[in-house]
Write a structure and sequence with these properties.
The complex is a heterodimer of chains A (about 500) and B (about 100). With about 500 residues, chain A is of the alpha/beta class. Chain A is about 35% helix and about 15% strand. In chain A, strands 1-3-2-4-6-5-10-11-9-7-8 form an 11-stranded mixed beta sheet, sandwiched between helices. In chain A, strand 10 and strand 11 form a beta hairpin. The radius of gyration of chain A is 21 Å and the shape is globular. With about 100 residues, chain B is mostly helical. Chain B is built from 3 helices and 2 strands, in the order αααββ. Chain B is flat. Classes of the chains: A alpha/beta (about 500), B mainly alpha (about 100). The interface between A and B is large, with 76 and 52 residues.
Chain lengths: ~500, ~100
């Protein structure tokens, strides 16, 4: 059998269970694909020995008829997840050389479910970015190119390496994390599926913290079915994360009926931004028509505080980041600056953090420090938290009125060129998250599904937003959208 | 609107314990002003009587029994330290 790396999770699982291939064969195909994909810079730490060892163990389990959900399926892990004995540096210089002595709960859950780790994936430094251009490892590159061009495009961010790796078939699926859109935007930029579950579904323990009240892990996959399989394996109640939800994890795959009859889909008018590109507006209208054809009722809704989501996010996220990143002080792990004679502990902190943090991380830590500082705490931080309450209430009201899911574009554009935003002010980059960031602020589940291409042949995605804890229903709606859209395009291999 | 000058930028860098060279301060102050100008929109929102969000999902933080549940892992704790000596983290002189 050829091209086993091109399989999705569900296809590979079924072949493995039928004995038509082995985990070793699929894993080898992925390792070979990774070896040939250096130009994408998606995998930044390779763990072929661990992969082959876990593949062999998985093959034994499958043969014995004891195959858990992800048994023998090779995946990539975002560098934000701590993996025992394997470099985990959040794409930052400040964690250079850091090899955790422990395993994150999510990656442990995946390992327990039989998944095979191929290596660690590129990302924006500390997950701060929308283009994977803030990484200490250099840019990850999108396997997709504009028709007839060879301009290198961003795979999005912060989970850019995960998106590129899945889109280029270097692995069957990957983990991502999403604080303001970091799973859904890269998924949309690469024609893949990415879901951020309800805040509290996936344990944050062992995931390098960015903004703790917003961070959630989730899967990045080749199909909605795969997302359902992998999300279920990632979720658990975890006493080690005080915000982990003590709720049963449903069988997400079994819920994939795609039955839209009787469902109410909301179309928020505030998301129809001024200057929205025609192709995005059309994609959105087409998506609504597909869900309507499938039996759903389409209703216009209003989420009046949408406009204030990004500014609130750019207070809350940097504030939490400035607090979380205070731990990088050159004492317990990672980089410590070389000190001059007479330098004391303050100079050690200041030099270590100046050398270890990149520009965007420094900027956000300082903005966060400012909005939390005496005299500004109420004006900025508390005001943003009060606006956040209103943003969540917008969603609560719509769901209380009987809306099951909300349909929006996933991104304001297709993937842009690497370096294209270099002269833009930081706000221009932040606008990438305009459709996704509300979902983090409200703690809701959101999924990006590829449904079309733009005039240059690049993938475009739509986002569905669900009620809290109703990922099963959300995935089923996404499954319907995926079936109707029939998006099957893949990037032409140039790497 | 609050405008950030170079001395404020320097103060913020100091609070954040990030060394910023004096020649980088004007650009940094300019960036802060751009970002804070964007954030300034929040002033338009009527937040009268609205509570600041503390938890996005209604939940009480759980408590566990006040007993030792972990420990005795000195070697693992020190494993990644840039400078560990005699079972401790080593840092430059703190007290004169």
């Amino acid at each position: 059998m050829t091209d086993l790396n091109k399989l999705g999770l569900s296809e590979a699982r079924d072949l493995l269970r039928k004995g038509e291939t082995t985990s070793k064969e699929i894993t080898q195909a992925c390792l070979k694909a990774i070896e040939g994909a250096g130009a994408l810079n998606a995998f930044v730490h390779h763990t072929p020995e661990i992969a082959m060892e876990r593949a062999a163990a998985a093959d034994v389990r499958i043969k014995a008829g004891d195959a858990p959900a992800m048994c023998g399926l090779p995946i990539g892990i975002k560098d934000l997840f701590c993996t025992k004995g394997v470099p985990s540096q959040a794409a930052s210089r400040i964690l250079e050389g850091f090899k955790p002595e422990y395993e994150s709960t999510v990656s442990q859950n995946l390992q327990d479910a039989g998944a095979v780790m191929l290596g660690k994936l590129n990302m924006d430094e500390f997950a701060m970015g929308s283009s994977n251009e803030t990484s200490a490892y250099g840019n990850a590159v999108n396997p997709w190119r504009r028709a007839g061009e060879d301009t290198a495009l961003t795979p999005g961010g912060s989970s850019g390496g995960s998106a590129a790796a899945v889109a280029a078939d270097l692995c069957l699926a990957a983990t991502g994390t999403d604080t303001g859109g970091s799973i859904r935007q890269p998924a949309a930029f690469t024609g893949t599926v990415g879901i951020k579950p309800t805040y509290g579904r996936c344990s944050r323990w062992g995931v390098v913290a960015f903004a703790s009240s917003l961070d959630q892990a989730g899967p990045m996959t080749k199909s909605v079915r795969d997302a359902a399989i992998m999300l279920e394996a990632m979720c658990s109640y975890d006493p080690k994360d005080s915000t982990s939800a003590d709720l049963a994890v449903p069988d997400f795959e079994a819920a994939l009926t795609g039955d839209m009859r009787g469902k109410k889909i909301g179309i928020p008018k505030e998301y129809r931004m001024d200057g929205m590109p025609e192709e995005i507006a059309k994609l959105w209208d087409d998506g609504a028509a597909m869900l309507k054809d499938a039996g759903a009722q389409i209703v216009d809704i209003s989420l009046p505080h949408t406009k204030y989501a990004l500014p609130a996010y750019y207070v809350i996220a940097p504030a939490e980041a400035s607090s979380n990143l205070a731990r990088y002080d050159g004492v317990r792990y990672g980089h410590r600056a070389t000190l001059a004679a007479g330098d004391g502990i303050t100079e050690m902190y200041e030099k270590t953090r100046a050398e270890g943090f990149g520009t965007e991380v420094q900027r956000r830590v300082m903005v966060g420090t400012y909005v939390l500082s005496a005299g500004f705490y109420d004006a900025y931080y508390n005001r943003a938290r009060r606006v956040r309450t209103l943003i969540k209430k917008d969603f609560d009201d719509v769901f209380a009125a009987g809306v099951d899911c909300i349909l929006t574009p996933a991104t304001p554009s297709a993937a842009f060129g690497l370096g294209e935003m270099i002269d833009a002010d930081p706000i221009q980059m932040y606008l990438n998250d305009v459709f996704t960031v509300t979902v983090n602020l409200a703690g809701l589940p959101g999924i990006a599904v590829p449904t079309g291409t733009n005039s240059q042949g690049l993938p475009l995605g739509l986002q569905l937003i669900g009620r809290p804890w109703e990922e099963a229903d959300l995935l089923s709606s996404a499954y319907s959208l995926e079936r109707s859209a029939g998006f099957v395009a893949k990037a032409d291999k140039w790497w | 609107m609050m405008s950030i000058d170079e001395s404020t930028a320097a103060r913020v860098a100091k609070l954040a314990r990030i060394k910023v060279e004096p020649e980088a301060l004007p650009a940094l102050a300019q960036e802060f002003n751009t970002i804070l100008g964007f954030i300034e929109q929040l002033a338009e929102v009527d937040i009268e009587g609205v509570e600041p969000m503390t938890s996005v999902t209604p939940q009480n933080l759980r408590r566990r029994a006040d007993v030792v549940a972990d420990g005795d892992q000195q070697a693992a704790v020190l494993k990644n330290a840039p400078d560990a000596r005699e079972g401790f983290f080593a840092v430059p002189k703190v007290v004169e």
